[in-house]
Amino acid sequence: MFAKADINAGKALVNQNCISCHASSYGGDGSEIYTREFAKVKSSKGLLAQVRNCNTMIGLKWFEDEELNVAAYLNQNYYKFDH
């Protein structure tokens, strides 16, 4: 699922757009949202769906490839789902 994604581009988008929102909700650097005990995300498809949901809710207007890049970065660093 993430084979064509650009991990570095995803990291940049997360740093620019996601961390401040997650930090205000979860404290610290905001990464606890990805590792919390009762995480909503259970699969790579679910991860991409959640990234799309955040994109829509916040009005970031990311393109599909940007959503995929963010999901790939998060998967590599936090979730470790099989592709």
Characteristics:
globular, 66% helix, mainly alpha, 0% strand, 83 residues
Give an account of the 3D structure:
- There is one protein chain.
- The protein has 83 residues and is mainly alpha-helical.
- It has one domain.
- It is 66% helix and 0% strand.
- The chain has 4 helices and no strands.
- The N and C termini lie close together (5 Å).
Strand-helix topology:
Blueprint: H1 7-26, H2 32-35, H3 44-58, H4 64-79
Question: What is the gist of this entry?
Answer:
The chain is an all-alpha fold and 83 residues long. It has four helices and no strands.
Query: What pattern of helices and strands is seen along the backbone?
Result: HHHH
Largest sheet, if any? none
Task: Tell me the Rg in angstroms.
Answer: 12 Å
Distance between the termini: 5 Å
How much of the sequence lies in strands comes to under 5%
Number of separate strands: 0
Report the uncertain regions: none
Number of helices: 4
- Helix percent band: 55-70%
In total, how many domains does the architecture comprise? 1
- Average pLDDT across residues? 91
What is the general shape? globular
The structure class reads: mainly alpha
